[in-house]
Amino acid sequence: MSAEYHGIDGPLRIAVIIASTRTGRFGETVGRWFVTRAEQHDDLKLDVIDLYDIPLPDNLEQTAQVTAFTARVGAADAFVLVTPEYNHGYPAALKRAIDAVRSEWQAKPVGFVSYGGLAGGLRAVEQLRQVFAEVHAVGIRETVSFHMAHDQFNPHGELSNPHIANTAAATLLRHLTWWAQALRAARAAQPYPA
Asked: Which 3 state secondary structure label does DSSP give 150?
């Protein structure tokens, strides 16, 4: 996706960020499921950012990888983070990605799709809400969470019982797009204060 501005009437640009970079991760399965849901909306333009494919360096100086990632975040009107919960927290690669970017997060909404064991990744989401408030992004209350995620998807990556998750995704997207439209219009009318 280019950083080209589409105006406040163009398609909303949603960056779907897959946060896990572990070998054998389940994030790709959950991410594919969510992208399939979001693709049903003609007014959305998706950019799937898989952190596994973007190895951000420990030193976050403006390397080519950091610059390219920053441009993709800057081009987005909103974000959906697909994140696991590791040891009651979110992945280190996601923290590095958040810290690699500054003003590009500001005044944009962030939705969460989490997965994990009994808690379904919700403890990671609650921590991320605090982090994104600090970078002046707006966390969307509605989430999609998969408790015991491996048990909910079949070997082909399809949900065994999709109704609840599909309903939750529709609600998340409805609220995310409302905030994305409102904040895009606000940023166009007046730049977010530094």
From this structure: helix
